[in-house]
Amino acid sequence: MSGRAESGYIRRVNRRTLEFGCGVVLVGLLAGVAGAATTLLLHWIEHLTYHYSFGTLLDGVTGASPVRRVLGPMIGGALAGLGWWLLRRRARIPSLTTAILSHEPIPRLAMSLDAGLQVLLVGSGASLGREGAPRQLAAALGDLGTSRWALTPQDREILLGCAAGAGLAAVYSVPMGGALFAVQIVLRTWQLRAVGTALLTSALATAVAAPITHLQTPLSWPDPDLSYLLTAFAILLAPLAVAVGRGFNRLMAYARGHAVGDSWVLIPAIATAGLLVGLCSRQWPELPGNGKSVLAISVSSSLTLTSALALVILKPLLTAVFLRAGAVGGMLTPALATGAALGSVVALALNTWTPLHVSVPAVALACAAGVLAITQGAPLWAALFVWELARPPLWLLIVFLAAATAAHLLNQQMRGATASE
């Protein structure tokens, strides 16, 4: 290689390195903006739907009139269905992970509008996760911000994958969970470049969204009496977590596979799903929304055994109904809520019918980690994400990791046994 050619090559490499570094900072900042914007919009829609000014969504649903509880989700579902009908007539919205890993062009406007419709639906009470919207918006903004730069396909993949994780980190104030989500679930690589980028972007996004989120954990840990024996008990929960996690996945796959087409039928279908969750909320006000209400009352030990059992059944069923109706939304928090309700059932049953006394919050979150490990196939991330949501004592991370790992390994063994038959 001649001296001039070598000099030109070095300049190009230096330029790509500089642009990638700038891209890391820009993506982190934009992901924080995406997280803050979707959080503000979600809270505004929740307050408008249930007509309350302060407190949580559960406070709003509990204080709302019976008519508003029923009609609010139905009207929100109809509006979201109308929006998706109009949007899907003009654009195809691919899976974000698929678009990133296959290096497909990101339909920035369509993906951003789709994210807004998800927020509208979840804010009005739909039993779907809210985390898909900030991930999509963060990736769309990140792609727009870096579109004119000389990035390699691999660098673009890393930046957009980390943007998705940073969007998750921003809305829940979980920087480690967001970074691990990008590395383990979206990018599926432990390359040092990807890990470093994920950590930086998630930390930046969490900081940018802090004026809106106030860095508050979604769950308030009650600091109950705990025992290290919970680690062994968490492992014993694995069969239940596997059963519920596999059932959750199969139910959601069936609902997606039989979803209504992208015609005007979306409007009455999603409105009917909203009506159904509204009717159920008259008896169980924890059901509307992404599942945070179920998690909160599980951690605060506010559930009765009957209510916890009802939530284990109704939360995934209502989520599947929305998917069957053609809606789109996240699956993380519905799966977490189902697992937490299951853990509450186990703990309350043991405390009621046996001489044992176990911590309801700890068992609820351990079971939630186990179920999430099955639905996402990432036990390490599931344990860390659950821990960051509540920030209990650090040693409980071992309990959550034991529950998630045991469930994951048991699930792998069951898959292997089924494949060999």
Automatic annotation (TrEMBL):
Keywords: Chloride, Chloride channel, Ion channel, Ion transport, Membrane, Transmembrane, Transmembrane helix, Transport. Its main location: membrane. Gene3D superfamilies: Clc chloride channel. It comes from Mycolicibacterium anyangense. It is a multi-pass membrane protein. One of its GO terms (cellular component) is chloride channel complex. It is found in: Membrane. This is Chloride channel protein. SUPFAM superfamilies: Clc chloride channel. The chain crosses the membrane at residues 20-45, 70-87, 158-182, 194-214, 226-244, 264-281, 293-314, 326-350, 362-387, 393-410. One of its GO terms (molecular function) is chloride channel activity. The keyword Transmembrane applies. The keyword Transmembrane applies.
